[in-house]
């Protein structure tokens, strides 16, 4: 009997190519070129986070990405009126709403969907009515996930950062407990009709592990791939990530066939 394993996609985040460009000024390295190379290497989509302070990706980058990409563009953004207006102008394939604080180095924690109240619900509705697939970046928390479904999100992206940090610190018992939370969250979200994505802090090994979770349909990875590109090249890093994800999916297939 053939076991059909659902496919898993790779979204490549090009934010930190823009960070490198902005460190010196000028136009290079070009994040749009990086996006095109990522697609050639096997990325299924491109993610770009336009922060309110424009610390890496800029408005012009978003417009160029929207013009040249032939794969889905995932516009990662804070849930603000300014960003919603820009998303409605650009009409990307998807908008992933994330928490954002100006002093943070990277996104810390998941979006407070419950605390966002009716204002967040209205923003999700407005984006959805424009044909934009709305994703909410959330911690593996039962109440937050239930609220995400209630307000009409199509997707949740599970924040894997805490799990990845525990792995990096060698805290195996705590990492196992956090991974169990991710598993439960993925199953809960799927049972509510949400598509499940995951991302933040993933490397080859952790991506392989989480790719073996059946409900997960997409991983979004950026910083690690840009860092690996320094040593092996961007395309080679992405191809290796695809191999790692494929190994994880193969583990899923083997476990289902057993």
Structural description of this entry:
It is an enzyme of class 2 (transferase). Pfam families: PdxJ. With 258 residues, the chain is of the alpha/beta class. The protein has a single domain, classed as Aldolase class I (TIM Barrel, Alpha-Beta Barrel). Helices cover 53% and strands 17% of the residues. It has eleven helices and eight strands. The chain has an eight-stranded parallel β-barrel, surrounded by seven helices. α2 packs parallel to α3. The longest helix is centred in the C-terminal third of the chain and has 24 residues. It is globular, with a radius of gyration of 18 Å. The protein starts with 8 loop residues before the first strand and ends with a helix.
Task: Describe this structure in a few short sentences.
The protein is of the alpha/beta class. Helix content is 53%, strand content 17%.
Key terms:
258 residues, TIM Barrel, 8-stranded parallel β-barrel, 8 strands, PyrdxlP_synth_PdxJ
So what's the CATH class? Alpha Beta
Q: Look at the structure and give the mean pLDDT.
A: 94
Instruction: Determine the CATH superfamily.
Output: Aldolase class I
- The whole-angstrom Rg is 18 Å
Lateral arrangement of strands in the main beta sheet: 1-2-3-4-5-6-7-8
CATH topology: TIM Barrel
Uncertain stretches of 5 or more adjacent residues: none
Helix content class: 40-55%
Q: Order of SSEs, N→C?
A: EHHEHEHEHEHEHHEHEHH
